[in-house]
Design goal:
This protein is an alpha/beta fold and 308 residues long. It is built from eleven helices and 16 strands.
Length: 308
């Protein structure tokens, strides 16, 4: 089952000619999940030829303009295509007010169901077949949440030679063993899944954190992520400015990634003060702490593979 993250926008505060505002799309097979929707989100969706009508859920970190101004256009656009399934919008307090006000003031024509859920406490905020999404609090100038998309664990690798040796005939019984059931071998003995399966394997994990002070409690929330998308708005020389505005530096993001033992860190939400050349300096500060760090760019794609 394919799992991919698309960077639709990597900028913070204001859009630049080659840097739309922060937005990340996660695709799991044909189902799409959007994390924030800054200005320019639709442009990247079109350029990547992604089918926006397949977006099931929009997860909003907070209601600052550079994270939500792309959402009204998406809502109107979705009325121009055949859509039968509801669209969920999940976010902090006042996200419902923002959506409702936008619909009313812009006189939107909406021909599908929009279900808005405001987060009242941390924990699982959305579940689907084989996965769940957790929200956890961040520390910004207004209520803000990070998100972790986690797949269910997988059974261990099936060893056919062990099943043969234990007298389990090939066919449906093998499938039942792989599904976790105990079966009866041809000789009458019970064969348990653990007799023919390797150690359980983890599912994949994607985490998204932006607009927050860096603090240690983020690490356990994103621990073990295959891909950790995290803001690196400033370089360390501007640490005091980051603290004042309740953002984090690239170095702080890297320290969280290191503590959380993630597989890869993709920095995002850069200050518009940084040119493409300047961002090399930001990247180096993060890589000095956590080498598997990359700069995310608009329309960059990250395949998220199974570890084994």
């Amino acid at each position: 089952m394919n799992l991919e993250a698309f960077i639709l926008g990597c900028g913070g505060m204001m859009p630049l000619p080659n840097r739309h505002l922060t937005s990340v799309l996660l695709r799991r097979e044909g189902e799409l999940f959007l994390f924030d929707g800054g200005e320019g989100t639709q442009v990247s969706l079109r350029r990547l030829n992604l089918r926006w009508k397949k977006i099931s859920v929009i997860f909003v970190s907070h209601t600052h303009a550079d994270h939500v101004t792309g959402i009204p256009g998406l809502l109107m656009l979705s009325s121009q295509v055949d859509r039968d399934d509801p669209l969920y919008i999940i976010g902090p307090p006042r996200i419902a007010e923002y959506i409702e006000t936008s619909r009313r003031v812009l006189d939107m024509y909406i021909n599908y169901e929009i279900i808005v859920r405001e987060i009242t406490e941390p924990g699982v905020v959305y579940e689907g077949e084989g996965f769940r999404v957790r929200a956890f609090p961040l520390r910004h100038t207004k209520p803000c949440y990070g998100y972790a998309f986690e797949e269910d664990g997988r059974p261990g690798e099936f060893h056919p030679e062990k099943a043969d040796a234990l007298g389990v005939p090939r066919g449906p019984l093998w499938s039942r063993l792989q599904a976790g059931e105990t079966v009866r071998a041809s000789g009458g003995a019970d064969v348990h899944p653990e007799d023919v399966l390797g150690a359980p394997r983890s599912g994949r994990k994607f985490s998204f954190v932006t607009d927050s002070l860096g603090f240690p409690e983020i690490a356990p929330e994103v621990a073990g992520s295959d891909l950790f998308v995290c803001e690196g708005m400033f370089e360390q020389a501007l640490l005091e400015s980051a603290r004042e505005k309740k953002h984090m530096t690239a170095e702080q993001a890297a320290r969280i990634a290191l503590a959380a033992q993630v597989k890869k860190l993709a920095l995002i939400h850069y200050s518009p003060r940084y040119t493409e050349y300047d961002l090399k300096r930001v990247l180096k500060e993060a890589q000095d702490i956590f080498p598997p760090t990359v700069l995310s760019r608009d329309r960059m794609v990250f395949p998220i593979e199974y570890e084994d």
